[in-house]
Amino acid sequence: MNRRAGTIVSSEFPLYLSPQRPCGYLPGNSERVIFADTEAARDPQLYSALLARGFRRAGKHLYRPRCPSCEACVAVRLPVTDFAPRRRQRRVWKRNCDLLVRVRDIAYDAGHFELYQRYLASRHPDSGMDGGTAADYREFLLAPGVDGRCYEFWLAQRLVAVAMVDVLEDSLSAVYTCFDPELPERGLGVYAILWEIEAARKMGLSWLYLGYWIGDCRKMRYKAEFLPQERYLAERWQLFERFAKDTSIRHNSAPSEPP
Q1: Total-model pTM
Q2: How confident is the prediction for the chain on average, in pLDDT?
Q3: Band of pLDDT at residue 125, cut at 50, 70 and 90
């Protein structure tokens, strides 16, 4: 996002409107975003306030879609103390109980980048992101001055997943997760979210922000499976507790806490 190419749209604090470009999620659509000045992500209070208005972070910027003819991107957050895992989510948790999770500060790591490249090549080959350079990776994920954590998931000596989150006053915000495309049976993306939920609980936080859910995008639908959740619609958070096709969801006990 290039500030010079944007048009300022707010005087409360600096917000800029990006140029229009093709949408990366819904073919045939166009997208624009509003984004905050790079300093906003370094201010925990402002970062939290913008998250609560439907923004999220990419690199040094906090942004929110403002597309010309579409409102498909819906910000989602989970109230972590109320989260109730579904049966298949509990199975994923048990299936991955042999993984070791290491916690690090967010920083560039060659092993992370190699896994990220393999993940994009397999899962998002037409996104325009695959084949990017290490500099592209740094620009997309890293933000100096932001309080971030990186969860590394290890199967013996093999790095199988990396999940990056930002730590805010009352929440964790999921920035990006990538995992080994050769292990689809493990459900590593789901497991990473379950781990983040438990991490937020242990830290005494209220929310896990999951970024944007897009109902018409197959690759983004998985976020609807974490309930209860709140979605930012019509400038307010609205609670969703049940699936349309599953009215028997109960508040089951959460998975065991991570080590």
Answers
A1: 0.87
A2: 87
A3: low
pLDDT tens-place string over residues 215-246: 888 878 889 999 999 999 999 999 999 765 44
Q: List the domain range (segments joined by +) for residue 27.
A: 3-74
Long-range pairs, 139-143, Cβ under 8 A, ≥24: 139/59, 139/60, 140/58, 140/59, 140/176, 141/59, 141/106, 141/175, 141/176, 142/59, 142/106, 142/107, 142/108, 143/41, 143/42, 143/57, 143/59, 143/60
Specify the number of domains making up the chain.
1
Domain annotation covers residue 212: no
Residues 27-62 pLDDT 10s: 888 999 999 877 888 899 999 999 999 999 999 999
Structural contact between residues 105 and 150, judged by C-beta atoms closer than 8 angstroms: yes
**Within a domain: 45:** yes
Could you count the other beta carbons within 10 Å of the beta carbon of residue 161? 25
Is 37 inside a domain boundary? yes
